[in-house]
Amino acid sequence: MILIPEHEYELTAIRAQGAGGQNVNKVSSAIHLRFDIAASTLSDWLKARLLHSKDNRITSEGVLVLKAQQYRTQEANKKDAIKRLHEIVNTANQVKPTRYATRPSYGSKQRRLETKTIRGQIKQMRGKITGE
User: Would you say the C-alpha torsion 92, 94, 99, 105 has a positive or negative sign?
Assistant: First the structure.
């Protein structure tokens, strides 16, 4: 797990959007987090991986911008923004193993065909009974 030092990202308090009554116009409870990927101390491999990801929160200058306004307090929104930043970086750090194509075994093919035959027979029995 990668932890990012506090001096590498910038937190700015802004007014939150949406409902909130009179309080929403007075208090700056939302947080803008700006993280410059290129200027960070992350490894070059991880920087490249983050910059080439198709995340629309990363600007053309290579700055990751997160807006946290889920909670009513500024402190809770700060924690949320930092947690989301760590999640994004740690997700980019994980490499999924290469998937190799495999084929179904002979036995699994036979079992599938057997169940298909049985189901077909059951459905055939549902037809109308013709009297003589």
Answer: negative
The verdict on residue 102 lying in a domain is no
Task: Give dist(CA 98, CA 127) in Å, integer.
Answer: 49
CATH, residue 26 = 3.30.160.20
Closest CA to 28 of 76, 67, 73, 83: 73
Query: Cβ atoms within 10 A of the Cβ of 131, count?
Result: 4
**Helices and strands, number each (H, E), in the chain:** 4, 3
Work out the average pLDDT over 65-91.
86
Instruction: Report if residue 98 sits inside a domain.
Output: no
Q: Do 37 and 80 meet the contact criterion of CB atoms below 8 Å apart?
A: no
Domain that includes residue 62, residue range:
6-93
pLDDT band at residue 102, thresholds of 50, 70 and 90? very high
